Amino acid sequence: MKLAIATSALLFVAWILLLLVSLSTPILKDVALVKVHTVYHFREISGSVVDHDLYVKFGIWGRCFKMDIADWTCRKSTEQTGIDSTLERALVVHPVACTLVFVAFVVSLCILRCKDRGFTGRQALLIVGSVMTPAVLTTILGIMDVVWVSKFQQLVNSDAIESYEFGNAIWMSVGAAVVLWCSSLSGCIHAFKQSRYAHERKL
Known about the structure:
The chain is an alpha+beta fold. The protein is built from six helices and five strands. A hairpin with a 5-residue loop joins β3 (62-67) and β4.
């Protein structure tokens, strides 16, 4: 019973994390995959050059940017930097992982209702599969997120931008993957115990 509750709780936490990532910039301005800072040199009519700081936040669905102390301006677009178009297109898969985690969460709630009856072998496999599938997908997405953000170093090396840093959405994605593997472990152990319990009752 404790394992079933732990599995459900962990799945709920992972779902919240992935939901925030799926609603990242420009929907939620405070949740971003990467933050970029660069300096633009503007030549005024008088001939003098004025430096302006430009800050950009990249999320799954677009970007938000602001100049100096101005307000943030956001644009929705899945074509963002041109660093790696394949990885950028893969960002939109995050909502799919979020949906799978929610399905696994619903399945885990069904587990709690079956605590006294035990599981058949097929039911156990269904439970294990529903938990491990989003764990694998989220892990792949987390690795792809880290690789994509790391490629911003190319822009730093070419002096296209001044600096960049990992956004909080990256750590949410990685954290969700860790939580999902923990829930997979507890879910697998619980499914095995319940399946064994159901088998013993038939004997």
